[in-house]
Design goal:
Strand order of the largest sheet: 3-4-5-6-7-8-11-12
Number of strands: 12
Low-confidence stretches: 66-83
Radius of gyration: 22 Å
Distance between the termini: 46 Å
Oligomer: single chain
Order of helices and strands: EEEHEHHHEHEHEHEEEHEHEHHH
Bound molecules: flavin mononucleotide
Largest sheet: 8 strands, parallel, barrel
Mean pLDDT: 89
């Protein structure tokens, strides 16, 4: 059985990728993910706030030292070790690449163009197999239009693309007004992959304490439908970008559905956080069993099997929409 796939111009031994989460935050854990069978691993994001904090700290310590002690430079090493900020991150990239054979995809979440560019270059120099840009922005300001929010993403991507040669993926949430056009623009600008989708952080309200509850809720398989829809609409329509599914994998069923819809790779975080890295073995074994039972010789054989082939995707969507509502109405009346 050939489980291999191609994602971001990289060859993966199987399509299941451990997505960015604390599970891939140190070399030991990354080794465990490789041993359990991960096709590739995405490191947790380096946030620009971490970069700024480290810069601020280094500057503060050098200034204090310069005023009080001629050996100010000796403060530097402490500042470097202070947290697992940017320097620790670059070290993680380099050490992970040495420690495992699977691709190591770094992840960056910036707030300014300069922050993105500088660290994209450093991440490339540290030896990352690829870079995922975690563009997590909510256009909550009342003056930002949908077009502007999309244009900002594309400009940001282009700025990074112009400075690095390694494969670059863009991880996005689905809340853009015209996602298809955004995907096409990113593809034309040289994106090697799109991750559909990041999960939007959504707080809840704790009624007993009358407070916002800011915990992170893990996903469930019920959340795959939007990803399935967009994968099926985009698969085969982007000349360059490969596609990764991003949310709601609980069992191999979700992996298989995503592949059939058109994903080249399928990422999972919540399932691995719930069950541990070794759960990858179950996902891979169940994928293999399903392929064998259905007489498919490879993952490639099912990729995009049910992707949309309608020349007018919007017309198809409308047809499906009306069909399902009318179908439900008929079913409801019969009861
Ligand atoms: C605890 C936790 C930490 C995460 N950290 C990151 C991160 O640093 N960068 C990122 O792009 N996504 C991060 N994510 C999002 C996941 O990579 C993933 O996109 C999302 O959880 C949807 O996948 P899932 O349904 O398999 O959980 C995190 C998710 C969780 C649950």
């Amino acid at each position: 059985m050939d489980l291999g796939t191609s994602y971001l111009r990289l060859t993966l031994r199987n399509p299941i990728v451990a997505s960015a989460s604390p599970l891939s935050g140190d070399v030991g854990a990354i080794r465990q993910l490789e041993d359990a069978g991960a096709g590739a691993v995405v490191l947790p994001s380096l946030f620009e706030e971490q970069i700024r904090e480290e810069e601020r700290l280094i500057e503060m310590l050098t200034n204090v030292g310069a005023d009080s002690n001629p050996e100010a430079g000796s403060y530097f090493p402490d500042a470097m070790k202070y947290n697992a900020g940017p320097l620790g991150y670059l070290e993680l990239v380099a050490r992970a690449r040495e420690a495992v054979d699977i691709p190591v995809i770094a992840s960056l979440n910036g707030t300014t163009e300069a922050g993105w560019i500088d660290y994209a270059q450093l991440i490339e120099q540290a030896g990352a197999s690829a870079l995922e840009l975690n563009i997590y922005r909510i256009a909550s300001g009342p003056t930002v239009t949908g077009g502007e929010a999309e244009a900002e993403c594309v400009a940001l991507f282009k700025a990074v693309r112009a400075r690095v040669a390694l494969p670059v993926a863009v991880k996005l949430h689905p809340y853009f007004s015209a996602f298809g056009a955004l995907a096409r623009q990113l593809d034309q600008a040289g994106a090697d992959g799109l991750v559909l989708f990041n999960r939007l952080y959504q707080p809840d309200i704790d009624l007993s304490r009358l407070r916002w509850n800011n915990d992170i809720a893990l996903s469930s398989a019920a959340e795959i439908r939007l990803g399935l829809l967009w994968l099926s609409l985009l698969a085969g329509r982007l000349p360059r970008a490969s596609l990764a599914a991003g949310t709601g994998v609980e069992t191999a069923d979700e992996v298989i559905k995503y592949l059939i819809a058109g994903a080249d790779a399928v990422m999972t975080a919540s399932a691995l956080l719930r069950h541990g890295p070794e759960y990858l073995q179950t996902l891979i074994a169940d994928l293999q069993t399903w392929l064998t039972m259905h007489d498919f010789a490879s993952v490639t054989a099912i990729k995009g099997l049910l992707r949309s082939s309608h020349p007018d995707a919007e017309a198809q969507e409308r047809g499906d929409y009306i069909g399902s509502l009318l179908g439900y109405r008929g079913h409801y009346v019969q009861r």
